[in-house]
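Students often ask what a holo structure prediction actually looks like on paper. The answer is less mysterious than it sounds. You provide the chain, you provide the ligand, and the output is a string of discrete structure tokens encoding the 3D arrangement of the protein together with heme C.
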Amino acid sequence: MKKKIFFAFTIALSTLAIGYNAHPQEDMELVDNSVFGNPRRPPAVFRHDAHNERAQIEECGVCHHVYDGNGQRVEDESSEDQRCSDCHELETSGRQPALMKAFHTNCKGCHKLKNRGPTMCGQCHVRGSVGTN
Ligand code: HEC
Ligand code: HEC
Ligand code: HEC
Ligand code: HEC
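The corresponding structure tokens follow.
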């Protein structure tokens, strides 16, 4: 009996997890970490739209950037239709930082600059968040 309930609970949880990944960014709660293969940390909490509204970031290109050949960010252009991992590989490649560094520089960099938002590992990689452990 107990086993059955546990099983049902597991199914419910995994349905939730799949749901989150399949939804557009309005429902994004976490940054998908599956591209890391064997992630060491729980995925980072990131409620996309709510975060950006509260942080008052209007330009998508602040995160979904596009660079020209001279390494200058092109204003008013956005790569929102691409994953960060479409360009950033697991290792550094030319001027493109490795994927983990790209995330950390983007997220923590702004939080430090503005002195708002989390900068400690466990505040972003929250144990027990939906997804992995
Ligand atoms: C279309 C390809 C592309 C996508 C998609 C992309 N990047 Fe980049 N990113 C680049 C390139 C190219 C550079 C190097 C720019 C230069 O020449 O200095 C870069 C540089 C960076 C840097 C270092 C410079 C800086 O802005 O501080 C960070 C951090 C970064 N990317 C984070 C991210 C994150 C996070 C995402 C996803 C939200 C992302 N990138 C998506 C191409 C991309
Ligand atoms: C503070 C950084 C940030 C800003 C600003 C931002 N995004 Fe994102 N967005 C992300 C990250 C990180 C992801 C996940 C990328 C990945 O997994 O490679 C994402 C994913 C997405 C996705 C894919 C959703 C999914 O479920 O896979 C879309 C679409 C998107 N963003 C659109 C936008 C639009 C449109 C704007 C501007 C109105 C915007 N974003 C502003 C960080 C940002
Ligand atoms: C351009 C600046 C900027 C970038 C880039 C950015 N943040 Fe933030 N973030 C903020 C600010 C400002 C706050 C504080 C908002 C407030 O006062 O509630 C914040 C708050 C947060 C919070 C706590 C409040 C909440 O919304 O849950 C989390 C978690 C967070 N950020 C995660 C991330 C992650 C993960 C990324 C990278 C994918 C990221 N942030 C990128 C500016 C930024
Ligand atoms: C501002 C939020 C934020 C903070 C603070 C932060 N990270 Fe991350 N980290 C991310 C995001 C976003 C990713 C991309 C994928 C994911 O885990 O969701 C990531 C990816 C990683 C990865 C690669 C994926 C994995 O799990 O193997 C590791 C390892 C990692 N972080 C470790 C750390 C450690 C250690 C600290 C503290 C020194 C830290 N992070 C602090 C947001 C953060």
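Confidence is low (pLDDT under 50) at residues 17-23.
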